[in-house]
Structures are given as structure tokens and as C-alpha cells.
């Protein structure tokens, strides 16, 4: 059954009489009321999509009788309440499950570990409590994020379809330091080999109870590790650095402007920008600061990392998307300079910086690389100019990440008005006033 357009009213119960129905897509309409339990009679159904309607009430346990359901069960974007029925664990063929953006409560049923074919799941934006069920799984299921925009796909292990707590303990030998690949303000990261051979990164959150995140393991690790290592000199050329900055800008623009509700990253640093084998950036740990206890005295873990925090945080302790913009600016400068720009930002706080000849841009860039030439030089100038605008002390005139992403991706229309070797930092800051 193909999707109608803006149908309203209750979902018709007679659909349960269509016992030969294989595909049902009623997404994006205005259906209200409860999901009819009669749908459980459609024993040949392969895909069921009721997402983005106004459905309410509980998920009928009869949906667990749809043993042939394989490709999709999507109930997201409704007003469903109550608990997740344990009967859904009978859907052994199910590959994609989406129950996000509802009002579901209670525990994640342990029976869901029986969904051996699950490739992706999303239970986000509900009110679920998350103990870790026990039980073995034969296949890893991941939360499918928007990888095209530079975000790293995350899966909350508390949902427990990935592995049980016992599996994690066994794979890391009780969280041995031998498996630790990184530490942050409120998480420790371990490299874990799953029984089926796949390598993942498990992030153990430093909170009460057992809280974990699982994400794809990227062999190159953080961009900080690459930038300050030998790879930074050999493989991180100017074109690659510009591309990394562009990717991070698009990731933050997605979080700020395309997610509902918008997500503030809280901690934009080189440590949280991971690199694929081809140096494509993936922004990790987005929004995890929301999981932190708001009464915690460890305010740096909540607000971000020293050296990347916006100056207004010292006064207000209020994190906004403009704090992310500032952190992005610091990261962009660091990628271009090959070192943290703290000294430069301190100098820029002086009103005299743009009055004289000032600092030459070529002297501030990473000296391990030859100076960029031609159009590449123009792109580097644009990156630094935008980064300087992002690191303004006053948050109000900082650009939005959508504007930043658009500017960095736009075609360069005009050539430099002067030779690259004469461009000063002072002039670039004056261009943004």
C-alpha cells in the first residue's frame, strides 16, 4: 500500500483483514488514536511504517505476531506511551526498528536481544529507563546517524541489543588499561573486539550506574593524534586540512539547524573529531554532556575542554550554540596552524592588532608544510578568516554554523587582493568587523 497524503482520523481497523498485505506505509499523515491491534493479523507483512503521525496509546503487543516482518517497523514521531511490549522480541527477522520521538517509558525488554537480524535501531527521545539486559546476540546493531554530514554513528549500549554488560567486561578484561584508548572529562574509551570479529569503541561514562556508548572504531583515531604526529606532516596537506574543517562545519550545522530539537555539542575539540582512513572527519560525543549530572561540581566536563571553551562561559556557565561556534573556530585555527591558537587569540584581544602591519598569516600557519599556492591559498585564507570570526570574544556577532558551512563550501569568486605572503592576521580580523 503506497503512502497517501495527509489522511486523518483513526487508523482503519479493517486493514487487519488484508491478510495478504506485504507493505504498509502510512507515514507522514495525520492519523490519530491508537494503533489497531488488528494489524497483528497481517501475517505476511514485510514492512510497516506508521511514523510521523499523531498516534497515541500503547504499542499493541499483537505486533509481535508479525513473524514475517523483516525490512522495517517504524512507529517514530508519534505520541505513543506505555512500555515497549516484550512480544517485539519475537520479530527475529526484523532488520530496522525505529521507536524514537515518542513518550515511551519503562525498561528496554530483555527479549529484544532475540532480534538476531537487527541492523539498526533508534529508541531516542523517549523516557525509557535503561538497565542492561543479559543475553547473547549474533549480530551488532547500530543506531544509524547522519554519516553524510560528518557525524559519528552512536549506539547507547544501555539499550543492550549490541551486547550485555558481561560481554563488555569479558572483552575488556574487566576494563583493563590495556584496552583503554582515550580518556575525557566524563568518559573512558576502550577498544573492544566483538565475538563476530568487528572492532568497536566502547565509551564508559563516569556516572552513577553502568552507562555506555558504542560507536564505530576508526583506526586513525582523533584528529589531534594525527595532527601532532608524523602523519600531520606527511599526509595532512592543505587540501586535506581544508576538507576536515569543512566536514566539521557541516556536522555542527546539522546538529544546530537540522536536528529536532537542536543539539549543542558542548565540547568541540580535536579529540572529539575522529578521522576515517581517507581522513574524512567524524564528529563524536555530540550531546553526551546532557547525560552529565547537572549538579556535578566538575563543570569543565559539562561546559567543555579548557582551551576550547567560549569566554562567556566563565561568567554565565550557560552553554549555547555560540559556544560550539567558538570551539569550532579554535579547532579550525589549530588545524591550520598545527598548534593550539591560544597565544594568537590572546594577542587578538589587543585593540592594536589591526592597526599596524601585524602578524603575517604565512608565519602563523603550520611551518611543517610549504606555503599554499593558487586557489588553495585562497581557501586557506577563507578558513582562517571565518575561524577568526567564530572566535570573537562577544558571542553575538559570531556567525551561525549554517552560515559557516555554506561559506566554506561556496565557490571562491574573487582572487586574493594581494600576494599571499603579505596577508596579515590583522587584515583578516578587520574583514569581519
Automatic annotation (TrEMBL):
It catalyses: L-threonyl-[protein] + ATP = O-phospho-L-threonyl-[protein] + ADP + H(+); L-seryl-[protein] + ATP = O-phospho-L-seryl-[protein] + ADP + H(+). It is found in: Membrane. GO terms for cellular component: membrane. GO terms for molecular function: ATP binding; protein serine/threonine kinase activity. It holds the Pfam family PK_Tyr_Ser-Thr. Its EC number is 2.7.11.1. The keyword Transmembrane helix applies. Residues 70-421 form the Protein kinase domain. It comes from the Eukaryota. Transmembrane segments: none annotated. Its main location: membrane. Keywords: ATP-binding, Kinase, Leucine-rich repeat, Membrane, Nucleotide-binding, Receptor, Repeat, Serine/threonine-protein kinase, Transferase, Transmembrane, Transmembrane helix. InterPro entries: Kinase-like_dom_sf (IPR011009), Leu-rich_rpt (IPR001611), LRR_dom_sf (IPR032675), Prot_kinase_dom (IPR000719), Ser-Thr/Tyr_kinase_cat_dom (IPR001245), Ser_Thr_Kinases_DiverseReg (IPR051420), Tyr_kinase_AS (IPR008266). This is non-specific serine/threonine protein kinase. It comes from Vitis vinifera (Grape).
